[in-house]
Amino acid sequence: MHRQLTPIHLIARASAWVGGITLLACALLISLDLILRKLFGISMGGADEIAGYVLAIVSSWAFPIALLKRSHIRVDILYSRLPLKPRVGLDLLALLGMAVFVGALLWHSSQVLLDSIHYRSVSTTPLQVPLWIPQSLWFAGYLFFAVTIVMLGWSSLVQIRQQRLTAVSALIGIHSVEEEIREEVPTSRFDTDKGAR
């Protein structure tokens, strides 16, 4: 791993853990609300609203970890048959395309946030949540995603300058079939099978 990416990896991993725990807490909250409604005819109120905010925030913070783990879906019918150099070119093109897309997301989410701050918007529910609070966390997730893309792009260009195309492919490329097998099958078993051949 490139040293410059270590803080990005740490933040992304921490956000994934926090997001997972928060989603679990929301599921428990909604379950409790449903049980109270069914058994006692009462509702805590706002569980669905809170879950909506959490889902939007956690989603925006999940994108960077998916990018770092190379989990985003890409069509690889032609890609996998190309030599390394054109594959790296396509990887950079894909990263640039994602940067443009995230730039648009970042711009629009910032406008939504600024409008909520300017108009002092609150949710039209009994909770009356000031919308800038969940929207700030939502925007921060997209901002971190943009930073992740920039850092990956920079690290890739540094590796290209050093003629380390394999390292670039490992950083931003698509998982090879062998890598996918290694993730699914325990390492010792994979190595044993490979040695047997």
From TrEMBL:
SUBUNIT field: The complex comprises the extracytoplasmic solute receptor protein and the two transmembrane proteins.
Top-rank lineage group of the source organism: Bacteria
Subcellular location: Cell inner membrane
An example Gene Ontology biological process: C4-dicarboxylate transport
Pfam families on file: DctQ
Family, similarity comment: Belongs to the TRAP transporter small permease family.
UniProt function note: Part of the tripartite ATP-independent periplasmic (TRAP) transport system.
TM annotation in the entry: 12-30, 50-68, 88-109, 129-154
Tripartite ATP-independent periplasmic transporters DctQ component domain location: 27-151
Name of the featured protein: TRAP transporter small permease protein
Example of a GO cellular component annotation carried by this entry: plasma membrane
Membrane topology: Multi-pass membrane protein
The entry's keywords: Cell inner membrane, Cell membrane, Membrane, Transmembrane, Transmembrane helix, Transport
GO terms of molecular function: transmembrane transporter activity
